[in-house]
Amino acid sequence: MSRKWPDFAVLELLVGVDDHGSLGAASRLAGMAQPNASRAVKQLERQFGMTLLQRSPTGSTLTPQGTVIAHWARRVLSDTRRLLDVADGLRAERTAELTVAASMTVAEHLMPAWLGQFRSLYPDVTIHLQVHNSTQVFDRVAGRTCDVGFVESPSVPRPLKSLTVARDRLVVVVHPTHPWARRRKALSVAELAMTPLLAREPGSGTRTTLDVALQEYDRAAPLLELGSAAAIRTSVLAGVGPAVMSTLAVAEQVEAGELKVIDVEGLDLDRVLRAAWRGPRQLEGPAGELVRLVRRVGTDR
Asked: Residues in domain HTH lysR-type (predicted)?
């Protein structure tokens, strides 16, 4: 006698009721309208010939039979997810594609060398690079529109996994004619906080690192908010105002004397660069190989 397979979506609903205590919460998490969820459960009850939910004016909970079915549904869904992961892995091996998202500082100053070395080792992998600020990179990693992201943000939102792959430092830079360039005494943190600066937009790793470092101080509004390190560097070179920038972005200009680094007493702007991804703790496939390569080479250029 042939039997009809249950719909996986309704099994997810039962597990959701078991986890969250109501069909309403389970349907919201599943992205399903509650009337549709209720109809789906009733159809499963008819198929199984038993009552799975105890319905009342205050909500729905699992019956003892429903609790048993939810337990087995959880196992079925877990195995199904593994099946989908295997299929994804086989598809990735066949297509050999890698989509990487990187924050602007990483993309401009480090990613070309990293991807160049990766390409020499894995010439058959097609690489797609997306460039965003750190917050947008996290969004794309969480939404699975990229395989791995590289950011300079101080923290990584859950449930994303991350690894430190390199280190960087922010410095205060000014045009050589700026009054700070003639100071003999280091700048205080309070002075820096009270000064309007050329700044990246909210959501960028550089902006977030500075905001965290100065969070206990009264802050001046930004002199200008610009969307890239290159735009800020150009503005500082033009004498528009001071900025806090990655050493990666200003090393050549500082060495040439076109920009001057200003010491700030008691301010630590060292930061880590991280790889972030969604999925298993151990990143595998081309994305995993890229992360391992990046950890080996760090910020060497």
From this structure: 6-63
